[in-house]
């Protein structure tokens, strides 16, 4: 059974890779064609490519993660491949899997699995994946979406970056995409334009901040996915978006120190209008992308850790 399941896993990974690479190639070649001006088609095609790339990556880890509502029998066979079975069950399911009878997971579920597998990439990709999720739905379901070139460039950048990252995980072993000269030129210009874009945003925020006549604005916001910090332009309170993660360090055999780190991925100041869309933009504006919020550790652990005294562990 184990050998058979491995064959099926490889089959799924390669089929998904092949289709992902086809969509990627088509989307990028349309994007580079100067005469072509259809943002919706480029964004839609590359969104599908990115979703399939992540699915190919998930298949490499475990195919059972790819499907919604699999029959319980097939889950047992997938998760316990060492069992001895007559195969009577399996042959029917094998045909169903290969003929796509079972529904695969949606993009948001793919992204959730990706964050568990590669939690360190969350800070970098989160703003891009949020944009991708909204653009994908609009590009596929709306008849007259209005995308900016900026949305399109960010989708192209994400597609190339995700491709390279997933390739490095050994997923595209048979079907792969060769990064072209046009792709390389795009990546270079993307970095240059990003620096210029942030410079323009800061200039605009400075102009607006000169019109502010009231005292510095103080903001209070609840939740572990937001954190308030000073705006680098107008010094008012602005809001970072990101994630709070606990850390623990043993300083000796008996003493453990704990704390909280906030990893920021974007920033918004309502006073001067400064908006920074990702980690690279935070850095270009001179902002940090990690913040210590250990002062709130007690509150965090109270919320996320069960009180051991409340757990009934049975009779003594
Ligand atoms: Zn500001």
Question: What hetero molecules are bound to the protein chains?
Answer: zinc ion
Number of strands: 5
Structural class: alpha+beta
Shape: globular
Helix content: 40-55%
Low-confidence stretches are none
What does the secondary structure layout of this molecule look like, with pairings?
Blueprint: H1 2-32, H2 39-61, H3 72-79, H4 88-98, H5 107-117, H6 122-141, H7 149-168, H8 181-209, E1 226-230, E2 237-250, E3 256-268, E4 275-276, H9 279-284, E5 290-292, H10 297-304
Antiparallel strand pairs: 1-2, 2-3, 3-4, 3-5
This protein binds zinc ion.
Overview of this structure, please?
This protein is α+β, with helices and mostly antiparallel strands and 316 residues long. The protein has 2 domains: 2-179, no CATH class; 226-304, no CATH class. It is built from 10 helices and 5 strands; from the N terminus they run ααααααααββββαβα. Strands 1, 2, 3, 4 and 5 form a 5-stranded antiparallel β-sheet that branches. Helix 1 (2-32) packs antiparallel against helix 2, helix 2 packs across helix 6 and helix 6 crosses helix 7. It is globular. The model has no long low-confidence stretch (mean pLDDT 88). Bound molecules: zinc ion. Zinc ion binds next to helix 8.
């Amino acid at each position: 059974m184990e050998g058979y399941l491995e064959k099926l896993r490889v089959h799924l990974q390669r089929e998904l890779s092949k289709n992902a690479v086809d969509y990627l190639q088509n989307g990028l070649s349309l994007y580079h064609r100067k005469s072509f001006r259809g943002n919706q088609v480029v964004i839609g095609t590359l969104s599908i490519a990115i979703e399939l790339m992540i699915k190919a990556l998930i298949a490499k880890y475990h195919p059972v993660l790819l499907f919604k509502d699999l029959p319980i029998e097939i889950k047992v066979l997938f998760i316990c491949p060492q069992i001895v079975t007559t195969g009577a069950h399996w042959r029917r399911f094998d045909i169903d899997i290969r003929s796509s009878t079972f529904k695969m997971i949606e993009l948001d579920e793919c992204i959730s699995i990706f964050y568990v597998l590669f939690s360190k990439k969350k800070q970098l990709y989160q703003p891009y994946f949020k944009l991708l999720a909204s653009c994908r739905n609009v590009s596929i379901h709306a008849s007259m979406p209005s995308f900016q070139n900026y949305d399109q460039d960010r989708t192209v950048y994400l597609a190339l970056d995700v491709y390279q990252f997933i390739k490095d995980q050994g997923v595209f072993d048979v079907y792969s995409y060769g990064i072209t000269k046009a792709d390389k030129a795009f990546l270079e210009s993307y970095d240059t334009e990003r620096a210029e874009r942030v410079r323009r945003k800061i200039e605009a925020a400075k102009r607006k901040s000169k019109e502010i006549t009231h005292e510095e604005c103080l903001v209070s916001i609840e939740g572990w996915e937001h954190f308030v910090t000073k705006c680098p332009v107008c010094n008012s309170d602005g809001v970072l978006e990101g994630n709070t993660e606990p850390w623990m360090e043993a300083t000796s055999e008996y003493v453990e120190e704990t704390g909280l780190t906030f990893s920021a991925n974007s920033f918004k100041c309502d006073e001067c209008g400064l908006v920074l869309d990702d980690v690279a933009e935070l850095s270009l504006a001179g902002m940090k992308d990690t913040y210590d919020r250990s002062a709130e550790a007690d509150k965090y652990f109270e919320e996320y850790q069960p009180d051991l005294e409340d757990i009934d562990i049975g009779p003594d």
